[in-house]
């Protein structure tokens, strides 16, 4: 189980580092995802990209992996308005099938659960003394 968890930790970190880097390589892809009621869409894309790279990297360091996992959960919650905006306005994102935009919503929950796996403290066995 330990090796499996380690593999999944590296996969999650790689996913976020890659996503964060892509915010800088293709900002024109991410900027329209920011709901119009939020200010400075490009700045928010830059901030979220930096956060993804930083938290993904910190997830790989054992000493900071729990903190990084909590940060990833917070980040996933923070970017949820973008996913909701996209699902509610599929006409603004014709490059995506509307079903794909809906699938992103529960996918956020999967990613949160995945990050929580690294944020939660392991359950310590209790020993009953007689």
Structure described in brief:
The protein is an all-alpha fold and 130 residues long.
What does this structure look like?
Helix content is 71%, strand content 0%. It is built from 6 helices and no strands. Helix 3 (41-59) runs antiparallel to helix 4. It is globular and about 45 Å long.
Q: What about the largest sheet?
A: none
Report the C-alpha radius of gyration, rounded: 17 Å
Q: Regions with pLDDT < 50 over 5+ consecutive residues?
A: none
Structural class: mainly alpha
Q: Average pLDDT value?
A: 92
Classify the beta-strand content into a percent band. Answer: under 5%
Helicity range: over 70%
- Rough outline: globular
Q: How many β-strands, per DSSP?
A: 0
- Tally of DSSP helical segments: 6
Q: Write the H/E string, N to C.
A: HHHHHH
* N/C terminus separation: 32 Å
Secondary structure layout plus pairing:
Blueprint: H1 2-25, H2 27-30, H3 41-59, H4 65-78, H5 80-88, H6 98-119
Name the features:
single chain; mainly alpha; 6 helices
